[in-house]
Design a protein that fits this description.
The chain is an alpha/beta fold. It folds into two domains: 18-50, Single Sheet (Rubrerythrin, domain 2), CATH 2.20.28; 66-268, Flavodoxin domain (Rossmann fold, 3-Layer(aba) Sandwich). The protein contains eight helices and eight strands; from the N terminus they run E-E-E-E-H-E-H-E-H-H-E-H-E-H-H-H. The chain has helices at 78-92, 132-141, 158-165, 168-175, 198-210, 235-240, 243-262, 264-268; strands at 18-22, 28-31, 48-50, 66-70, 97-101, 144-150, 186-193, 215-225. The strands form two sheets. The protein has a five-stranded parallel beta sheet, with helices on both faces. Strands 2-1-3 form a three-stranded antiparallel beta sheet, with no helix packed on it. Strand 7 (186-193), helix 5 and strand 8 (215-225) form a beta-alpha-beta unit. Helix 1 packs across helix 7. The longest helix has 20 residues, at 243-262. It starts with 17 loop residues before the first strand and ends in a 9-residue tail after the last helix.
Length: 277
């Protein structure tokens, strides 16, 4: 029997056939339930999602407070766990939010129009073929962003880097002397990893947001790592039993909420001098 097939029932009738796709590597499995883990990339079973026709993300225009971004390739991994904690507190506090796992969305690499000429890098972005234009509008509409990233080679994930690269059209508004869409908004940063590189990763992420005019919440960065002396397969169990990761993540969310509710964006509107790379 093929590896990606379920057995038939004793009555000879086939079980419900659902195609499950690993959000990490794209492996597909057909069966009633997803497999216990991915046989290709060895990701956890939680990474499987029902396969469906890709529909481009569209922002509905409804206002909301916080954009919560899980920038990990593993949507249900340890960074996703930090996002889960953040989401739970946002719900508890009655804060309107939108959560997105970037692994579930299609975001193409930046076309680097700016390198041709500054005027070519415009908002709305020239690339309207993927999900990023919707994210552009949600960045403009939300009051704050909480972004979570794993540590990949002492920096952020490639998915998050691609996402942030695609915000260049919003940053470039200041260079073109046009009204900005993001200055005075608040950002909080969550970092998760196996070992070193947390502070560098956080600062790499923050640099992108501060170039867009975001203000880092006081005590606005939290990170948790396990340690190189441990096998990475033990990270999942460690983090889910760790009280510190819960305390720190909830603290970041609470701090973002407090600054956001001051109304900093409105207070600073028209008063800031854009100084952007």
């Amino acid at each position: 029997m093929p590896e990606n097939q379920d057995p038939v029932t004793s009555a000879g009738e086939q079980k419900a056939r659902i195609t499950w796709r690993c959000a990490v590597c794209g492996f597909e499995f057909t069966g009633e339930k997803p497999p216990r883990g991915c046989p290709v990339c060895h990701s956890h079973a939680d990474e499987f999602i029902p396969e469906k026709e890709r529909v481009r993300l569209v922002y509905d225009g409804e206002p909301f407070d916080v954009l919560l971004i899980n920038g990990s390739t593993h949507r249900a991994g340890n960074t996703g766990y930090m996002a889960d904690i953040a989401e739970a507190l946002l719900k508890d506090r009655g804060i309107t939010y939108r959560r997105f796992n970037l692994a579930e969305h299609h975001i193409e690499y930046c076309w680097c129009c700016y390198s041709v000429r500054a005027e070519s890098c415009t908002f709305p972005c020239r690339n309207q073929n993927d999900d990023m234009p919707a994210f552009h509008h949600m960045l403009a509409a939300s009051k704050a962003v909480i972004v979570a990233s794993p540590i990949n080679w002492n920096s952020m994930s490639v998915r998050l880097k691609t996402f942030l690269d695609r915000t260049t059209c919003m940053e470039n508004l200041y260079h073109l002397e046009k009204p900005g869409l993001t200055e005075g908004k608040v950002v909080g940063i969550l970092i998760n990893g196996h070992e070193d590189g947390a502070i560098k990763t956080a600062m790499d992420v923050f640099f992108n947001f501060q170039q867009l005019g975001y203000v880092l919440a006081p005590f606005g960065i939290a990170f948790r790592t396990h340690g190189a002396q441990f096998n990475s397969k033990t990270d999942r169990e460690f983090f889910r039993a760790d009280e510190q990761i819960v305390h720190d993540t909830r603290g970041i969310v609470a701090n973002v909420i407090e600054v956001m509710q001051i109304g900093l964006e409105e207070r600073l509107k028209g008063k800031l001098v854009p100084v952007s790379e």
